[in-house]
Specification:
The structure holds 3 protein chains of 3 kinds. Chain A is mainly alpha-helical. Chain A contains 4 helices and 2 strands. Helices cover about 30% and strands about 5% of the residues of chain A. Chain C is mainly α. In chain C, helix 5 runs antiparallel to helix 15. The longest helix of chain C has about 35 residues. The chains are: A mainly alpha, B alpha+beta, C mainly alpha. Chains B and C meet through helix 1, helix 4, helix 5, strand 6 and helix 9 of B and helix 4, helix 6, helix 9, helix 11 and helix 13 of C.
């Protein structure tokens, strides 16, 4: 029992500085936006996706179009985010952007309101991309702009 | 009385408190005359509105983009052979396809009355009714509604009458007519073995668009209501499957009337089993009253006949009992 | 007693060997060579041609699967094969229970001569209905499953299966005196006749339930069957139409017997055909009035009058006016004027109406709203030839039995025992 407590304390001491660094506001004045992001979290049928963040940031009407921010239009009340899953939502998104995967992981039966990472990402792409190429009319649309098939696909 | 169905760990029998209507009806039938004691059999049985913790699927038809990922995942999960046309072939949308032995689910395209540029898509599979007509009509009880929500089929009991196909309000069970020896009903299993392992059904796991949400049916209904309330312009105010034929585990949200997706709009809100209950309840009544009525009739006529002509002989036309 | 039977009897006295006696009964007293020669008739040649054409189709069905011979799919699981073989057939084969009930239960003595023929017609009909099922079931070798392997008592089809199964047994027992007389077992014969009344009451119950159950089967599909045909009264409609179908079929059976099997009919049978036809015609007419009233009641209760103006409404009117009201009136005229020919014509007409009603419920008005409906319900030629083959076999077996068993005559030794 005593040993376990020591181990946990040691673990906490190792993780704390790292997580503090991660949680530091990334959009403080002077912080650069990421240029291109490689999304490789979910790879079943398709290979990694090179996402041109800079281009999309320029096109978007603001960060809130894709990211959760306070007082955004995606969620009406605090409770909607903060009550879904206590572990994920003890953190605040005030003046910072967490990676999507911080909250959106595998879809879970317990909280159907919280989409899995794959759905969370696609939900941000589809509103604009439907109608570009064949997306929304044919499965071919998947591989025209974003995806390339891997061996399993 | 029933054989434990593989893949159905919680057979209906195991539940002591919530006796299903089908079970009760069976009892009343087998009890025969005892059923007469019930003044109104239909009113005497308890209401059954689905297993409380059962799972369901909410299909938000407004989100489906027709990528056919669900079809591919379903084929993989059920070890079905790869189709002739690959899964990214959109020529399949020119036909009205239907689930079969080769594919337990298919995505069909429908014209969008609001916007011709953006067609509508619907994934078609078993809706896993709360009180399934297929299970009601099967004379060998080859179908089981599990407590998790799946309607599973046991091929070892089926003799291939296809009454389930005839009875299904959604035309879902396909019959594998091709095979002379292994002919069987084929339909979506709701991935009951994956669900048992705390996994999502393969299609829900594969859907990128968020059109398929798997969860407790009660949670899904709340979620669906909220979506309609938050975005009343985007949805018609109807959760298809919440009440249709007594409720289905799979439910749908849409921006256009559901018949635009080929979902039948003329279904009663009550479980279909209720339509046959009256008839089935009358069977024991016939069995108990008819022998009495006809026995008495026979006795009365026979007595009269004896009185009239004790030495009655065949062929005497004049002493007919029927007055014609 | 006709010549052949006389001859047979003489032979059976002369020869004491069982084998010879049996063969003489089998070949109706002729030698095998004489018998084979007697088989060459135009009807038999036609029958042989139909059966020969159908044989490879049956072979295909059992080796290559159902899909090669019928057009069933997820929307149309049942085709004409079942519509004809089961749904249209069974009301006719109610003849057995209707006539038996008239004689044994209602004490209508003049029906005695017709009981055996009607029971034969019914029994054979049910046996053939089961055979249609053996063609259509996906796994016919499991046909006994609802009886022995697992029970689905919430199913109307379970009710049908059990009642038809039991009823075939009851009918076999009802008919067994004929068979036992043919074999010549007196003790069994006495036993078989002693349980007759119980059997008849059982038969009436089983028939009432399963004939109405055939209608109740369709209650599960309110979304699929056209509202003009779908009514909560379907079981009652099916049962009440069974009564006049059975009576029509019984009077036509008597007609066939005296016309085509006159040498097998004894004097008593022949002399009874006319009064029986009149009586059955009267009963059928009455039953049709009841049925017509119930049809109107169902229509009024669901308030579907407006649907009569649609194309399916017109078709409904064709069925109701053209094939219920018209034969009903013809029956009435026939009975009033005692025109036997007209009664027989009305019976055929009414039976066409019955077949039409069942085919409407099963095929034409079922899935009526589907886009490719009309193409889907036309049976392929393979299904049609199987039906023709089954009808042919049915007639051949009927003839075979009527030619041998004492159905339309009373053997002198057994007079007054039933």
């Amino acid at each position: 029992m005593h040993r376990l407590a020591v181990k946990l304390t040691a673990l906490f001491l190792c993780i704390a500085p790292v997580s503090f660094f991660l949680l530091t506001p990334a959009t403080g004045t002077g912080t650069a936006l990421p240029g291109t992001i490689t999304i490789n979290a979910v790879q079943k049928k398709f290979g990694p996706v090179e996402f041109d963040h800079a281009k999309h940031a320029a096109l978007a009407e603001g960060c809130g179009q894709c990211h959760h921010t306070h007082n955004d239009k995606m969620n009406a009340t605090c409770k909607e985010c903060h009550a879904i899953n206590a572990a994920h939502f003890k953190r605040s998104v005030k003046q910072q952007f967490l990676p999507c995967s911080g909250c959106h992981a595998e879809a879970s039966v317990q909280s159907p309101e919280l989409p899995g990472l794959k759905v969370a990402l696609h939900k941000k792409c589809f509103p604009c991309h439907i109608g570009m190429g064949d997306l929304g009319t044919s499965p071919k649309g998947c591989t025209q702009i974003c995806h390339t098939r891997n061996k399993k696909g | 009385m029933s054989v434990e169905t593989p893949g159905a760990p919680h057979n209906t029998r195991k539940n002591n408190s919530g006796i299903t209507r089908r079970r009760l009806l069976s009892l009343s039938l087998l009890a025969g005359g005892a059923a007469l004691g019930l003044p109104r059999p239909a009113a005497a049985r308890p209401e059954f509105s689905g297993w409380p913790e059962s799972f369901g699927m909410l299909v938000d038809l407004t989100l489906c983009v027709g990528c056919r990922s669900c079809e591919q995942a379903c084929g993989d999960a059920n070890s079905l052979a790869k189709p002739e046309r690959p899964f990214d072939d959109h020529s399949v949308f020119n036909e009205n396809r239907w689930p079969s032995a080769k594919a337990y689910t298919v995505v069909n395209r429908y014209p969008n009355p609001k916007n011709k540029e953006h067609p509508l898509f619907r994934k078609i599979q078993c809706n896993h009714c709360l009180e399934p007509a297929c299970a009601t009509v099967c004379p060998i009880q080859a179908f089981t509604k599990t407590q998790q929500g799946a309607v599973v089929y046991n091929v070892d009991l089926c003799f291939g009458c296809r009454y389930c196909v005839m009875a299904c309000p959604f035309n879902i069970p396909g019959y594998d007519y091709e095979s002379p020896l292994d002919a069987k009903v084929v339909k979506c299993t709701f991935c009951s073995s994956r669900i048992a392992n705390n996994q999502l059904p393969a299609c829900a796991d594969a859907c990128p668009a968020g059109a398929l949400t798997f969860g407790k049916r009660t949670d899904l209904i709340k979620m669906a209501r909220k979506r309609i309330m938050d975005n009343p312009k985007n949805y018609i105010d109807h959760i298809y499957g919440e009440r249709e034929v007594g409720g289905t585990s799979w439910m749908y949200l849409s921006a256009v009337p559901f018949d635009k997706y080929g979902l039948p709009g003329n279904l009663p809100k009550k479980p279909l089993i209720e339509l046959q209950e009256g008839f089935l309840s009358s069977v024991p009544v016939i069995f108990t009253t008819f022998p009495a009525i006809f026995g008495m009739l026979y006795a009365a006529l026979h007595k009269k006949e004896k009185k009239e002509d004790p030495a009655q002989k065949a062929g005497s036309e004049s002493r007919e009992v029927d007055h014609e | 007693m006709n010549k052949q039977a006389d001859f047979a009897q003489q032979r059976s006295i002369v020869s004491s060997s069982f084998r010879e006696r049996f063969l003489s009964k089998l070949f109706m007293g002729m030698t095998p060579a004489e018998y084979s020669r007697s088989l060459v008739t135009p009807f038999n040649l036609l029958a042989a041609a139909i059966l020969a054409t159908a044989a490879p189709v049956f072979y295909m069905r059992y080796t290559q699967g159902l899909a090669t011979v019928i057009h069933a799919n997820h929307e149309y699981p049942w085709g004409l094969l079942l519509s004809w073989g089961i749904f249209a057939g069974e009301p006719l084969f109610g003849a057995g229970f209707v006539v038996a009930a008239a004689y044994y239960l209602f004490g209508m003595k003049r029906y005695r001569v017709l009981v055996r023929l009607a029971v034969l017609g019914g029994m054979l009909g049910y046996a053939f209905a089961a055979s249609y099922l053996l063609i259509d079931l996906g796994r016919p070798w499991r046909i006994y499953y609802p009886m022995l392997i697992n029970f689905g008592p919430s199913s109307v089809l379970f009710v049908v299966a059990w009642h038809v199964g039991l009823y075939v047994t009851v009918q076999l027992l009802e008919f067994s005196p004929s068979i036992l007389e043919w074999i010549g077992s007196r003790r069994l014969h006495r036993w078989a006749t002693s349980i007759t009344v119980a059997l008849i009451i059982g038969g009436v119950i089983l028939s009432t339930v399963h004939q109405s159950a055939l209608g109740a089967m369709y209650l599960i599909a309110p979304g699929k069957l056209h509202p003009l045909w779908y009514t909560s009264h379907l079981p009652l409609l099916f049962f009440s139409s069974t009564i006049y179908a059975a009576m029509s079929f019984a009077l036509l059976l008597a007609f066939v017997a005296v016309r085509l099997f006159r040498e097998r009919c004894d004097e008593e049978f022949i002399s009874h055909v006319r009064p029986l036809t009149l009586s059955l015609g009267k009963g059928a007419a009455l039953a049709m009035y009841v049925y017509f009233a119930l049809k109107l009641l169902a229509l009024a209760q669901d308030n579907h009058w407006s649907l009569l103006a649609t194309p399916f409404g017109h078709w409904y009117l064709v069925e109701l006016l053209g094939f219920v009201v018209a034969p009903m009136l013809l029956f009435t005229v026939g009975v009033r004027t005692e025109k036997i020919g007209l009664i027989r014509f009305s019976a055929v007409y009414a039976l066409i109406g019955i077949v039409m009603n069942r085919v409407n419920v099963n095929l034409i008005a079922f899935n009526w709203h589907l886009p490719d409906h009309w193409n889907s319900i036309i049976p392929p030629w393979t299904e049609t030839i199987m039906i023709m083959a089954m009808i042919t076999l049915h007639m051949l077996v009927f003839r075979w039995i009527l030619n041998r068993f004492p159905v339309t005559q009373e053997l002198p030794d057994y007079k007054g025992t039933h």
